[in-house]
């Protein structure tokens, strides 16, 4: 088992496989961890303000406050509404067309607002 001409090709293949896996993992992580832009989110949130309030504080007890909520949670809920995993008839039309970037921006915006209004 000390024959180098036998061991080399295997080590090479293992190395390439690891590199490919690492690259795939990095690409996936990049796709999931979209950077949210608070200012872009503020503009995109204009239609949401009708129910969730301009400051993310709702005036109707049936509409949740969003101000100061965790960013990752907000993004997940918006995505779930968009994809149908969470259903609400009043939310669905407003999120149906959102891109991953829109969702990241909206989540960043609402998370940036003070929870007390
Ligand atoms: C017509 C009113 C209305 C509009 C407009 C609206 N929402 Fe909602 N939203 C709701 C209601 C009602 C719920 C609670 C649904 C439920 O009970 O599951 C909700 C829930 C949410 C939640 C989940 C909150 C939590 O604590 O789980 C998020 C996040 C959210 N909305 C974001 C948005 C965003 C972003 C927009 C604009 C793109 C928007 N909403 C527009 C009514 C609205």
Strand content: under 5%
Distance between the termini: 70 Å
The structural domain count equals 2
Mean pLDDT: 85
Give the low-confidence spans.
Answer: none
Largest sheet composition: none
- Binned, the helix content reads 55-70%
Tally of contiguous helical segments = 6
Radius of gyration: 22 Å
Which class best fits the helix and strand makeup? Answer: mainly alpha
CATH superfamily of the largest domain: Cytochrome c-like domain
Name the descriptors.
mainly alpha; elongated; Cytochrome Bc1 Complex, Chain D, domain 2
Please tell me about this protein's structure.
The structure is a single chain. The chain is built from 6 helices and no strands. The chain has 2 domains: 1-33; 35-117, Cytochrome Bc1 Complex, Chain D, domain 2 (Orthogonal Bundle), CATH 1.10.760.10. It is an all-alpha fold and 117 residues long. The protein has helices at 4-32, 38-44, 49-52, 71-83, 92-95, 100-112. The site of heme C (HEC) has 18 residues, from helix 3, helix 4 and helix 5.
């Amino acid at each position: 088992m000390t024959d180098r001409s036998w061991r080399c090709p295997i080590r090479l293949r293992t190395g390439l496989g690891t590199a490919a896996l690492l690259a795939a993992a990095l690409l996936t992580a990049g796709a999931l961890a979209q950077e949210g832009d608070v200012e872009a989110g503020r503009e995109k949130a204009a239609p949401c303000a009708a129910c969730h309030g301009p400051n993310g504080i709702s005036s109707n007890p049936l509409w949740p406050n969003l101000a100061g909520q965790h960013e990752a949670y907000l993004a997940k809920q918006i995505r779930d509404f968009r994809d149908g995993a969470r259903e609400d008839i009043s939310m669905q039309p407003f999120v149906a067309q959102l891109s991953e970037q829109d969702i990241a921006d909206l989540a960043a915006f609402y998370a940036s607002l003070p929870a007390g209004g």
